[in-house]
Write a structure and sequence with these properties.
This protein has 269 residues and is of the alpha+beta class. It has 2 domains: 59 residues, Arc Repressor Mutant, subunit A (Orthogonal Bundle), CATH 1.10.10.10; 183 residues, GAF domain (Beta-Lactamase, 2-Layer Sandwich). It has 9 helices and 8 strands. The chain has a 6-stranded antiparallel beta sheet, with helices on both faces. α6 crosses α7. The termini are far apart. 40% of the residues are buried. The N terminus and C terminus are likely disordered.
C-alpha cells in the first residue's frame, strides 16, 4: 500500500502518465519513438495514446503521424494559470517568425477590454523595437485585435471608437468591411493605426475545436513594411499560426484553417 490514497501503482496508469509527460516535454512525438522511450511495443502504446486522445489530453497532427498536447492541455495553457505552457508551445513558431522576418514577434491573448502580449522575441532592428509584454491595447487599432474581432473571439464595445493615431479606423462600417476582408485573407494588418510609423500583421491561433484563443503577430517600422512586404509576412504569420494550432490539436489543413468562419452567435463588428 502507498501513502497516496492507500493503493498500489497501476501499471497501465503509470504508462499512460509517462506517455503524456513525454509528449508534454517535446512534441510532436511518433508512436514508434514513444514506444522506444517507454520500453514498450507500438501496439502497446497505441491504446494508451487513444485513451489520452479521447480525453483531449493528446491530439494527432493532420497526417496522424505525430502526437501533440490536446485541447484540454490547451485550455489550461491559455488560462491565466497555465499561459506559461502556451508560451512554451509557441516558441518555435515565434522564433521562426522573428528569424525569417527580422522583425519583432509576439504572442497575444484577447482580454475583455482589448489585447495583451504575453511573449515576445525581438527582431534584428533597433528602429521599431518595443517591449509589448504586459501592455493592454485596443481591439480595433491592433492587428491582433482585428483578428479577435474578425474570427469571433471578441466583440467591439458600444460607443465611439477611440483614435489611437490619425490613421486609426473609427468608422464602424469601414471596420466591418475590413473584418470581412480579414476573414477572407486569414490574417490582419495595421499601418500607422496604433501609432504613426508602426505596422503589424497578425494571424489566429486556434484550439482543437477551431476557436481562436490567441494571435501571433509580427511588428516593425512602417518604412520597412511596405504593402508587398506585409503580404509576405501575412502569409508567413498565417503559416506559423497554423503550425502552432496544429501543436495544440487543431487538425484542419491550412486551406480549411483559412475557411473557418466565426462561430454563430458572436458579433464580429
Amino acid at each position: 500500500m502507498t501513502a497516496a490514497g492507500g493503493a498500489g501503482r497501476d501499471p497501465v496508469a503509470e504508462r499512460a502518465a509517462r506517455l503524456l509527460a513525454l509528449v508534454l516535454e517535446r512534441s510532436p512525438r511518433t508512436v514508434t519513438g514513444l514506444a522506444d522511450e517507454l520500453g514498450l511495443s507500438a501496439p502497446e502504446v497505441a491504446p494508451l495514446a487513444a485513451a489520452l486522445e479521447r480525453n483531449d489530453l493528446l491530439a494527432w497532427d493532420s497526417e496522424r503521424s505525430g502526437l501533440s498536447p490536446g485541447a484540454a492541455v490547451l485550455r489550461f495553457a491559455s488560462s491565466g494559470a497555465g499561459r506559461e505552457d502556451l508560451v512554451e508551445l509557441a516558441q518555435p513558431a515565434m522564433r521562426r517568425l522573428a528569424e525569417e522576418s527580422g522583425e519583432t514577434a509576439n504572442l497575444i491573448l484577447c482580454r475583455p477590454a482589448g489585447t495583451e502580449a504575453i511573449a515576445q522575441i525581438d527582431g534584428e532592428h533597433l528602429l521599431g523595437a518595443t517591449n509589448w509584454i504586459g501592455r493592454e491595447l485596443g481591439l480595433h487599432c491592433t492587428a491582433a485585435g482585428k483578428v479577435f474581432l474578425a474570427f469571433g473571439a471578441a466583440e467591439l464595445p458600444d460607443g465611439e471608437l477611440a483614435a489611437s493615431a490619425p490613421a486609426t479606423i473609427t468608422d464602424r462600417r469601414r471596420l466591418h468591411n475590413e473584418l470581412e476582408a480579414i476573414r477572407d485573407l486569414g490574417y490582419a494588418t495595421i499601418v500607422d493605426e496604433l501609432e504613426p510609423g508602426l505596422s503589424a500583421v497578425a494571424a489566429p491561433v486556434r484550439d482543437r475545436g477551431g476557436a481562436v484563443i490567441a494571435a501571433l503577430t509580427v511588428s516593425g517600422a512602417s518604412l520597412r513594411l511596405a504593402p508587398p512586404r506585409l503580404r509576405l509576412l501575412g502569409r508567413l504569420t498565417l503559416e506559423q499560426a497554423h503550425s502552432l494550432s496544429t501543436r495544440l490539436g487543431h487538425d484542419a489543413p491550412l486551406d480549411g484553417y483559412l475557411a473557418q468562419r466565426p462561430r454563430p452567435g458572436r458579433a464580429s463588428a
